[in-house]
Amino acid sequence: MSVEISVNLRKKIDEIKKKFPRDKSPILPLLHAFQDEFGYISVEIEEEVAKIVGVSPVYVREVSTFYSMFNNKPVGKYHIQVCGNISCWLRGYDEIVEYIKKKLGIEIGETTPDGKFTLSRVECLGMCDQAPVMQINGDFYGNLTPEKIDEILDNLE
Amino acid sequence: MSVKILTKHFHIKDSHKIDVYISDGGYKQAERALKEMKPEEILEEVKKSNLRGRGGAGFPTGLKWSFVPKDTGKPVYLCVNSDESEPGTFKDRHIIEKDPHMLLEGIIITSYTIGAHESYIYIRGEYYPQAIRLQEAIDEAYAKGFLGENIFGTGYKLDVKIYRGAGAYICGEETALLESIEGKKGKPRLKPPFPAVVGLYNCPTVINNVETIANIPAIVEKGGEWFASLGPEKNGGTKLYAISGHVNKPGVYEHEMGYPLMKLINEDAGGVIDGLKLKAVIPGGSSVPVLRAEECDINLDYDSVAKAGSMLGSGAVIVMSEKTCMVRALQRLIHFYKDESCGQCTPCREGTGWMLKIINRIVSGNGRKEDVDTLYYIAKGILGHTVCPLGDAAAMPVMSFIDKFRDEFEYFAINKKSKVE
Amino acid sequence: MSEKIKVTINGKEILTTPDKTILQVAEENGIDIPHYCYHPGLPVAGNCRMCLVEVEGARKLQTACSTQVRDGMVVRTDTPQVKEAVRQVLEFMLINHPLDCPVCDQAGECGLQDYYMEYGQYDPKFIENKNKKSKKATPIGKYVILDQERCILCARCVRFTRFITKTEEIGIFNRGDHSEVDLFPGKELNNRYTGNLVDICPVGAMTCRDFRFKCRVWYLEEFDSICPGCSRGCNIKIYYNPHRPHKADGNRVLRFKPRFNPEVNRYWMCDDGRYGYKFIDENRIMYPLKGKEEVYLDEAINSFVSLLKESIPDRTFYLLSANSTNEELFATKKFFVDNYKLENIFLPDEDIFTGDRDDLLITEDKHPNTNGVKAIFNILYKDLIKLDELRELLEEKSISLLIVNRHELPEDVLDFIKENGIKLVYLGTNFNKTSKAADLVFPISVFAEKEGSFINVDKRFQKFSSRLEPLGVSMPEWVLFNRLSELMEFPVYYSSYMNIFKHMISEVGAFKNIDLNNINKYGVLVEL
Amino acid sequence: MSEVIPIIIKILFVFSCFLSLAAFLTWMERKQSALMQDRIGANRADILGFRAIGLFHIIADSLKMFLKEDFVPRRGHKFLHTFAPFISAFCAMAVFLVIPFGDVLKIGDKVYKLQIADINVALLLLLAFMSYGIYGVFFAGISSHNKYGLLGGLRGAAQMLSYEVIMGISLVGMVMISGSLSLREIVLSQNKLLFGFLPAWGIFLQPLAFILFLTAGMAETKRTPFDLPEGESEIIGYFIEYSSMKFGLFFLTDFIEVIVVSALLTVFFFGGWNIPYLTQSGFHFPWGWEIALSPIVVTILQVVAFWFKVFFFCWVQLAIRWTLPRFRYDQLMGTTWKMLLPLAIFNVLITGLFILIF
Amino acid sequence: MDKKKKDLNTIQFFYITEIIRGLYITSVHFFKNLALHILHLFGIAKNKKAMVTYQYPEEKREITRRARTRHRIMKREDGTPRCVACMMCETVCPARCIYIVAKEVENPEVEKAPEIFEIDLGRCIYCGYCVEACPEDAIRMDTFILDTASYDRDSMLLTLEDLLNHDNQDDLYNINYMKK
Fold this sequence. Notes:
- The structure holds 5 protein chains of 5 kinds.
- Chain A is an alpha+beta fold.
- Helices cover 47% and strands 11% of the residues of chain A.
- Chain A has 7 helices and 4 strands, in the order H-H-H-H-E-H-H-E-E-E-H.
- In chain A, a hairpin with a 2-residue loop joins strand 3 (134-136) and strand 4.
- In chain A, helix 1 runs antiparallel to helix 2 (27-38), helix 2 (27-38) packs antiparallel against helix 3 and helix 3 crosses helix 4 (57-66).
- The two termini of chain A are 32 Å apart.
- Chain C is an alpha+beta fold.
- Chain C has helices at 22-28, 80-95, 111-119, 156-164, 195-200, 271-274, 297-310, 326-339, 370-377, 390-396, 411-420, 433-437, 477-488, 497-507; strands spanning 5-9, 12-16, 52-55, 62-63, 73-76, 138-139, 144-146, 170-173, 180-183, 206-208, 221-226, 235-240, 253-258, 289-290, 293-294, 316-319, 345-346, 401-405, 423-428, 440-443, 452-455, 460-464, 524-525.
- In chain C, the strands form 6 sheets. Chain C has a 7-stranded mixed sheet.
- Chain C is elongated.
- By secondary structure, chain D is mainly alpha-helical.
- Chain D has one domain (69-357).
- The longest helix of chain D is centred in the first third of the chain and has 33 residues, at 4-36.
- Chain D is globular and about 65 Å long.
- The interface between A and B is large, with 42 and 54 residues.
């Protein structure tokens, strides 16, 4: 199974290769680009990236499994990442995550059956001043309350 | 009001736009430095300023720059560490969001000083909107000719590139950061050799925190002595204090070095929420030893905090009220370190996992009294035996939490419930 | 690096050179510093943290494997802090290591076991569940089995594939305590040095599929030898099982392992050589055969003598083997060339120049002693005969007696021999088609059963010894020629191996710079 | 011819008696030791489930002896090795030629002495044969090509030679009293009463000689406490390389010697066939009672008495064997030469003195 | 010699009295036992024991539960031997009476099992080291089978099948010993 690379992605790849020409530096940006395109990093993508960078696929897999932001399994359309670190926990992480779990009917690490939401717990997102925080596909949502979560998730739906 | 260096543009609308920045006197210092000053002069100013690294370790910046060997024939790199992942820390985000050009100006001056023609800003992967904003700022600077070939017509060349991380706390460690930029796993390197000699792509490299670099234009503008005069001895300038946790107004506050902790909590942050009593404070990001309420009467500079038995770290103050269960709080922290351990060296890899298993067991009500000692024992086994400081960072909170709140841990282990809840 | 510096380790002053690490200096001076990730043949990683030592002036304990020595450095490896640190690191290593030593093939030569006895935390504190990993005893290549749970992530294997074979198959995936050594999904180890991974793995994470479960390592005994797999002449250790013959179907030799020789193979050897040991015990010719029947040695030798006497030297043909040791070749030369006046003595080119070679160790010539034949018989490569042309040669010279040493003759030659009634004498170690067609077969002992020497592709003269008894009545060739000499009433007689060896190095010109009393353990370069 | 038949009958009788007694002793030794040690002893051999308190072991043993492999050590001396047990057995058996087991048997007008051969130098013959026995032991030891065998043989030879001396000298007293070397005469000399009531047996006349002879006799048989040539727990002795019936002969010799010593004790010190107060016409007790018996009954009683005494001393010897521990070798030799020899000579002197006085 | 030997007094020095004393003791045993045996033959005084020994095959001596008796190999719940062929017992055995040949097992949790596991009872000295050494508690010496005598050496060789042929986990003391 080979990976189909769209024109847009091809352009991005060329850009990255130009920007970071040395060593294996392109691996991370490329993985970001592929994840943006495909939602997760599959084994095929890793091989593709290795081919682009010109290294053994083992390197790419090492990197893609090492960094927590790269999903090695398919995730839902919206990847809800709730910060569970100390500042957010002090400000009520427990209630927030319980509420989301109940609302979506899934546990942490699971995807809703319709493939829309994936819920995961992450470590500090660097938004401690707005704790508790969550990030959905790159966008931050701070000072969460159950009502606010309702609003956010409903808007996504 | 005290002196503002880093936050002086924060109140201006659209402060992140280059036009706003230039109109407020931006890029003047870079231009002056490139045109009028020699690198040695700048280095001298920085050394005089007593500017210490704002990333956490507090290493004198001027000294660090001076380690870069001259005439090796290899390019020199500047890496700006914006992998701000320490729980409780969010000051760099504020700078990038609100004043990215100050950072860029600092980068230009620093690169010029150390002779770098290529600079990387390593920004953590989660800061996606911030990365976009920074990229916009860089593009603006390129358009104005402040970056690229022939800056300010001096013939000096500098490229600034953003490199996005992908979610690894360890990449905040300078050598792990370099590994990450090289496209590898963020596993810290053995030191020596230090990155100032063998760094990115085996070339001499300077790695500085965003806040450190952002201070540079002001130092160049007003001189190192002025900067040094702002704080107590050996602690120059102002500091961004990021306060979070059980306070009414969490956020970033800039003060001179040596600002009293209680004042920060009670005045700037508006006191502990719900009028509760203060229980404990972590004064410098999650990895430093915790302070009990009665120990909090200190000034926030590197040496004073160290004297109190903790560390200023990144200046991220996490406040915990009397309702906080310290066992659960430590569970959060250990979970974090277990999650973020890179797995390279044994004590940290295995020790953090083991500590988490024990504290999870205590919290789930299956604890034994000996477990508290075991936790302490493991932390001691990690401390100082690892490649990078993450091991120490994981061990220190555990040891300090148990040192200072042992009764709470033992109560939980024996009675299977929290003492405060 | 002639510059000498002074280092103090545990109060012992040592003069050394500054290009070394503390660990190397300590090891050279017999001070044991425990380590896992450090391997002298690999780059330093410094991740196991076992080799922590106290360096005076340093704030923290330093890793001995990565810290270079400086002049005046004071190192201690025996302080309570160091001992405590090592003990705790070892304990960390063991908490997720499964307790399946009973099953593990590494048991007995396992770094964890060894160090646990010395530094172990005999009062374990770990009571949690161990981490489970995804691969438990999964084959990852033709010769290697991977057990991730036993892995202590020293990354020796990763570095081996990256820096030695440069095939880069292995990586460490995931992070933290879920890190695991693995191959890329769907790939398998496809280099020719995989056996080394088993050697360098300090624990039982990588074990050998070939050796697996055959025998416990503590039953094995070892002796030094030279690999006969190709003309590289890798230094090896032969592990044999002398006391428990019920294991491994009674085979004596169970594995080869590389032996350090900085001039030849360093720490490594290839899989072809390593797993090419089976001919030592399998399919061996143990007794002389006359026709198809086993006969007493005396009878066979008498028959050989009468064959030699019947045939005149001009009509006798001898095919040399480059598997023979120098001493055997020398005896052959003495017997056939000097005394029997044989001229038709040749070395066939069989599989020399097959093109199968690489930059690390493997050479094209799959015989260990082609250079030995060159040295003793002064044969050049261009003089080699081709086995395909053997038939014409036999016809041309109207040969009546063909003596073959170990070669497999082509079918047409065998047919030709049958048709023309040429007598075929076979000297060899193992049965093959030629031995089955031969009129007279003599059992020759394999290299592991005799003393001798080979000259490798780089003209390095290397001696080897043996601790195995020859199977059956098999014997070194020189012993056979000795017996023949006696019956043929030729003058030369060798009473012992040393006897023939001394005679050889004094008589063969190429060996003139070999000092009898002091043969370097890494071999001697000879001039050809 | 008519001379020969009675002798053959006597030979058959004597030999069947002591050979079956020897065989019986092999069983008795085990049973006796078992009883002394609170065990039950040999009782496993059975015929059709019938065990007969272990008596079948005698048969089983002899069968085993005959059926086992006859073995000569590879570098041993084949002839001597084969010959040695025969010397031993022969010398032991030959002693019975001269031992009187009864007085005389009168059938009609014929009078038969109940003794195979009444030789007037019987004692010398007896001592000579017992000395020849050493050859058997010594040959066995040196022909085995075994260091333990050799050691056993040497020990045996030294021990037997030493005790031979004591044995001879201890009997001199009795010879002096009876004034004859013929055993028959010696027995007859004891057939009277001392002080009117005490039988004039050797034991009363020569108590010291009795002890000396008993000791020397037991040493001659090489049994515990004098079993140094064999010493099961240390060297297994001169017959270590023997198997099958050759070993059997040594084994049997052992018991025959026990019987020989018992017989000699009986003859020399316990009045041989004598029963106190029994004369040819019947019992004549000193206090006046009389029981008249026909001569044939008296003869039978005497023969039975002889064999009973022999049996009793066999029992005593076995009992001593299972009571005492083994001597050390230096103790053994020291006892002979330093204690027993002076005592024996002293005994001869005292006896001489008494004879001179009375 | 640490302890000085007790000097013999004059009477003891002549030895005769001591011999007689010894003979007296042994003779008392002899006659008492002889009498008792004879009485027993007639069924009298059976309660008085004439001997301290046991008539082994008919009578059995009481043994304790911890006695080391013939070996067995424990089974897993699925009936396979618990042994993983680690060769510990084979290594530690001072009599070298254990012969193990290992084989691979499909199940990666087990990995290794004995293909041949033989104990040569003819060589075994019942020292119990194998039980001590076993890390899997696979070999035990608690079958309470004592009568392992045999007419030839081959039948003294216990195979894996023999060793596994037992009632798992049950009270073998009662099954094999007490009920006989």
